Amino acid sequence: MAQTKILVIIGPTASGKSSLAVRLAKKFKGEIISADSRQVYKGLDIGTGKITPKEMAGIPHYLLDVADSKKQFSVSDFLILTNQAIAKIVKSDKLPIVVGGTGFYIDALAGKISLPNVPPNKLLRRKLDKLDKEKLFKILEKKDPRRAKTIDPHNKVRLIRALEIVEALGRVPKLTHNRRQTTHDFIYIGLLPEDLDKKIEKRVKKMFKNGLLNEIRKLKRLGVSSKRLKELGFEYWNPTEESVIRGSKKYAKRQMTWFKRNKKIKWFKPDEYRKIEKYVKAELGGR
After folding, report:
1. Which own/partner pairs from 257-266 qualify as long-range (CB within 8 Å, at least 24 positions apart)?
2. Is 49 left (phi over 0), alpha (psi -120 to 50) or beta?
3. What predicted TM-score, i.e. pTM, was given to this entire model?
4. Range of 203's domain?
5. Are 27 and 146 found together in one domain?
6. Cα distance between residue 226 and residue 268, in whole Å
7. Same domain, 87 and 13
8. Which CATH number characterizes residue 221's domain?
9. Considering the domain boundaries, does residue 175 fall inside one?
């Protein structure tokens, strides 16, 4: 059985992934699946840099606005919806293009991660929930330093889940070296601007100009608690331009730490479109 070719576009925050994905989707008759752990939530638009309908330029996008921001969306949920989207796109004889910065989601889709079958430990969760994220991160650093290097230290939900897994298994399972059997053939494109810090600063300033604080107020009116806002990331918890710029730069470094593990990624600068197009065309077999 022939493997389904899937184009994956990754890179740190503010690297230009979404615009490249739209451009390549037009060129190679593709449709786009978002691999972003927060863009799945309704109402998290400005703070997550979610692509706008105008920017989509008529290209169908999947896995955006599919979850209630008051509830948790898991990697298992992502896999179910993404595989459904891939099947639909392939049936239409289009190219699935997965784009996003959540490396954990992308590696799970590619079969590089064995999701631990660890049931919720409600007693432990209640105990850990009483601690702030700084304390939780320090505990994880001590118990599983490898996982601490790649986790978002501001995401309390993930920190608690990681410690829950550590409690059950001794450590969070490592990425597998051999991909499990899959019907997908992944073509990886990585974007890495030379002036990433400047792009991050520009993006954050645009967030505030476009109404990030109003977006947070709206979420609160819709019943999203302060505790939940804190879980949703540093952009949604008492943000200032300085704190979001600082947090975004740290997040970009963690993203790159994760991506560097994947030696199949072909890295480009965002302005090297012709090289990217040529590479993709060759990998797709002249599609």
Report:
1. 257/149, 257/150, 258/103, 258/104, 258/150, 259/10, 259/11, 259/12, 259/103, 259/190, 261/175, 262/103, 262/107, 262/112, 262/188, 264/186, 264/188, 265/10, 265/188, 265/189, 265/190, 266/188, 266/189, 266/190
2. left
3. 0.84
4. 4-113+182-283
5. no
6. 39
7. yes
8. 3.40.50.300
9. no
Q: Are residues 140 and 62 in the same domain?
A: no
Q: Are residues 187 and 275 in the same domain?
A: yes
**Which DSSP string corresponds to 73-119?**
--HHHHHHHHHHHHHHHHHTT-EEEEE-S-HHHHHHHTT-S------
CB of 98 closer than 8 Å to CB of 33 = yes
Whether 33 and 64 have beta carbons less than 8 Å apart is answered as no
Distance between CA 259 and CA 21 in Å, rounded?
18
How many domains is the chain partitioned into structurally?
Answer: 2
Nearest to 152 by CA among 91, 105, 200, 208: 105
Q: Establish if 176 belongs to a structural domain.
A: no
Q: Please check whether residue 158 is in contact with residue 38, taking contact to mean a CB–CB distance below 8 angstroms.
A: no
Question: Is residue 204 packed enough to be buried (19+ CB in 10 Å), middle (13-18) or exposed (0-12)?
Answer: buried
Q: 93 and 27 in one domain? A: yes
pLDDT in tens, the chain (287 residues): 568 999 999 999 999 999 999 999 999 999 999 999 999 999 999 999 999 999 999 999 999 999 999 998 888 899 999 999 999 999 999 999 999 999 989 999 998 877 677 888 899 999 999 999 899 999 999 998 888 887 888 788 889 988 998 888 777 666 554 444 567 999 999 999 999 999 999 999 999 999 999 999 999 999 999 989 988 999 999 999 999 999 999 999 999 999 998 999 999 999 999 999 999 999 998 65
96, 7 Cβ separation under 8 angstroms: yes
